[in-house]
């Protein structure tokens, strides 16, 4: 059999041209101990505060306690899936959530992952859950009322847009009902040039309760301008801890 040197040369040249040397460099640490939703990791010398750290079995953690020889992570998942000796990998980004119009009508967990079975969220923008608040001079004055649709509240103790308001009361006195009625009443603002978008954050509630609230909002057409962030009673404590921060980040996108 005659060897075609030209053909072999062409093949070698083609292989050399297509040869790709790609090296994935990542800072990796080792889990020292795990317990009560907290993991201690050594070897992550350059980790940032509030940085997202990837652990095995799809578990993520947030760096909170930065010490000289180890880092304390709060785990956003089952701590039973992480054990001593596992590798922890830096993601080099702080904990952030997707924001924008793509979040409207969706039910998500505090990390922005969908929980409603409507498919993935195609977000083009993300915001960190913790960032510096605007200074007093940059804030607009409270000059426009937020109509709740409840005459007793709107007439006697009106609420302004941009104002904080605490709804306080004993169990089964209608606190959630006031919030839900207020969200439903904001539908009229979407017929104007200044619409109100709503973020409902449910912390420590039963999944069935969150499902009932979502169904009520959907039945009244309010989910078109509402995002539900659910940190259920069965979720780990760190997920419930970051839930209000996630909700604020999603709402601040519409403010800005």
Automatic annotation (TrEMBL):
<dbReference type="InterPro" id="IPR004100">
    <property type="entry name" value="ATPase_F1/V1/A1_a/bsu_N"/>
</dbReference>
<keyword id="KW-0547">Nucleotide-binding</keyword>
<comment type="similarity">
    <text>Belongs to the ATPase alpha/beta chains family.</text>
</comment>
<dbReference type="Pfam" id="PF00006">
    <property type="entry name" value="ATP-synt_ab"/>
</dbReference>
<dbReference type="GO" id="GO:0005524">
    <property type="term" value="F:ATP binding"/>
</dbReference>
<dbReference type="InterPro" id="IPR027417">
    <property type="entry name" value="P-loop_NTPase"/>
</dbReference>
<keyword id="KW-0067">ATP-binding</keyword>
<dbReference type="InterPro" id="IPR023366">
    <property type="entry name" value="ATP_synth_asu-like_sf"/>
</dbReference>
<feature type="domain" description="ATPase F1/V1/A1 complex alpha/beta subunit N-terminal">
    <location>
        <begin position="25"/>
        <end position="91"/>
    </location>
</feature>
<keyword id="KW-0406">Ion transport</keyword>
<dbReference type="InterPro" id="IPR000194">
    <property type="entry name" value="ATPase_F1/V1/A1_a/bsu_nucl-bd"/>
</dbReference>
<dbReference type="InterPro" id="IPR036121">
    <property type="entry name" value="ATPase_F1/V1/A1_a/bsu_N_sf"/>
</dbReference>
<keyword id="KW-0066">ATP synthesis</keyword>
<keyword id="KW-0472">Membrane</keyword>
<dbReference type="GO" id="GO:0046933">
    <property type="term" value="F:proton-transporting ATP synthase activity, rotational mechanism"/>
</dbReference>
<dbReference type="InterPro" id="IPR005294">
    <property type="entry name" value="ATP_synth_F1_asu"/>
</dbReference>
<keyword id="KW-0139">CF(1)</keyword>
<dbReference type="GO" id="GO:0043531">
    <property type="term" value="F:ADP binding"/>
</dbReference>
<protein>
    <recommendedName>
        <fullName>ATPase F1/V1/A1 complex alpha/beta subunit nucleotide-binding domain-containing protein</fullName>
    </recommendedName>
</protein>
<dbReference type="Pfam" id="PF02874">
    <property type="entry name" value="ATP-synt_ab_N"/>
</dbReference>
<dbReference type="GO" id="GO:0045259">
    <property type="term" value="C:proton-transporting ATP synthase complex"/>
</dbReference>
<feature type="domain" description="ATPase F1/V1/A1 complex alpha/beta subunit nucleotide-binding">
    <location>
        <begin position="149"/>
        <end position="256"/>
    </location>
</feature>
<keyword id="KW-0375">Hydrogen ion transport</keyword>
<keyword id="KW-0813">Transport</keyword>
């Amino acid at each position: 059999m005659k060897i075609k040197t030209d053909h072999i040369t062409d093949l070698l040249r083609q292989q050399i041209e297509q040869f790709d040397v790609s090296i994935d460099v990542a800072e990796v640490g080792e889990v020292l101990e795990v317990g009560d939703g907290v993991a201690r990791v050594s070897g992550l010398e350059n980790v940032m505060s509030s940085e997202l750290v990837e652990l095995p079995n799809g578990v993520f953690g947030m760096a909170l306690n930065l010490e000289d020889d180890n880092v304390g992570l709060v785990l956003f998942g089952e701590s039973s899936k992480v054990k001593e000796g596992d590798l922890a990998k830096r993601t080099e980004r702080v904990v952030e959530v997707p924001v924008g119009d793509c979040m409207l009508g969706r039910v998500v967990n505090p990390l922005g992952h969908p929980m409603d079975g409507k498919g993935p969220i195609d977000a083009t923008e993300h915001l960190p859950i913790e960032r510096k608040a605007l200074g007093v001079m940059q804030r607009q004055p409270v000059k426009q009322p937020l109509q709740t649709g409840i005459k007793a509240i709107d007439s006697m103790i009106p609420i302004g847009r941009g104002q904080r308001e605490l709804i306080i009361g004993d169990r089964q006195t209608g606190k959630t009902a006031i919030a839900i009625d207020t969200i439903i009443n904001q539908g009229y603002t979407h017929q104007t040039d200044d619409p109100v978008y709503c973020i409902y954050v449910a912390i420590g509630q039963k999944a069935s309760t969150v499902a009932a609230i979502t169904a009520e909002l959907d039945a009244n057409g309010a989910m078109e301008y509402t995002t539900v962030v659910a940190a259920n009673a069965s979720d780990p404590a760190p997920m419930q801890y970051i839930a209000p921060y996630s909700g604020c980040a999603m709402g601040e996108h519409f403010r800005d």
